[in-house]
Backbone:
């Protein structure tokens, strides 16, 4: 029997912004029921590839398949199966968190999920404060809840715990794990080794628009650990890039 096709497959993706080569034949995949953490320095291409997998941007060449579909121009039925948490949240400032989440939940016919999401992420205490008056970390939690409404099959989370206090980070990690445990394919970008270490079933280190190394935390970290591997791979990529320029 052949292995199942992973829900997210990125194959040979190249992309330029003008003369800037942002992604160079990037290839990776993210399996079902697993957390895949994408690590890489600023400008490595993480947001670009996530936006392409979310259908917000089209690669110059190469293919991306999410749940077997090209996300660019995918229909509403596909989009309902994919949850997205953007880096800046993209939330409407004048709306109150509970109102927003109930609105999103009605689109998915899943209003029953809201009490547990609100409880697990500690949104209860600020549910009636307008989003523009929330702290960055509180907004982050609302954005995560919005991404998880509707129990998507795939979720893309861009730095989900950045700026959160230690308690909130644990809550977010618990929720991300329970999302994985119900079979969801979770893709997380992060700059935190601790986050990757604690969450990841698979790690992908990207550097200068390509995959430098991928595998389990143990495979990628080897004997020196994740942090050492990251620094040696990303330093090497920076040196190569400087030499090319
Ligand atoms: N809209 C754009 N126009 C021009 N260049 C862009 C654009 N978006 C990204 N880039 C460039 O493409 C490269 C990859 O950027 P990208 O945002 O994907 O990196 P990243 O790994 O997400 O970085 P960060 O960790 O800072 O979020 C960078 O050199 C960036 O300057």
Residues:
């Amino acid at each position: 029997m052949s292995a199942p096709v992973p829900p997210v497959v990125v194959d040979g993706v190249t992309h330029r912004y003008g003369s800037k080569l942002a992604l160079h034949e990037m290839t990776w995949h993210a399996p079902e029921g697993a957390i895949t953490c994408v690590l890489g320095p600023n400008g490595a291409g993480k947001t670009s590839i996530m936006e392409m997998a979310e259908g917000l941007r089209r690669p110059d060449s190469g293919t991306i398949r999410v749940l077997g579909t090209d996300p660019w121009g995918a229909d509403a039925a596909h989009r309902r199966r994919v949850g997205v948490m953007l880096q800046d949240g993209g939330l409407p400032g004048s709306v109150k968190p509970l109102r927003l989440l109930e609105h999103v939940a009605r689109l998915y016919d899943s209003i029953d999920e809201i009490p547990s999401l609100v409880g697990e992420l500690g949104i209860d205490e600020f549910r009636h404060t307008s989003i523009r008056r929330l702290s960055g970390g509180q907004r982050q939690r609302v954005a995560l809840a919005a991404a998880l409404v509707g129990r998507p099959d795939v979720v893309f989370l861009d730095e989900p715990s950045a700026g959160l206090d230690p308690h909130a980070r644990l809550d977010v990690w618990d929720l991300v794990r329970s999302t994985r445990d119900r079979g969801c394919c979770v893709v997380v970008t992060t700059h935190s080794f601790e986050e990757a270490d604690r969450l990841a079933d698979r790690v992908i280190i990207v550097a200068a628009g390509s995959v430098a190394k991928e595998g389990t935390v143990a495979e990628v970290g080897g004997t020196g650990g994740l942090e050492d591997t990251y620094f040696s791979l990303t330093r090497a990529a920076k040196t190569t890039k400087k030499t090319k320029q």
Q: What stands out?
A: The chain has two domains: 8-81+153-244, 91-151. The first helix runs from residue 46 to 53. The longest strand covers residues 20-30. The pocket of adenosine-5'-triphosphate is lined by residues 17, 20, 22, 40, 42-48 (CB under 6 Å).
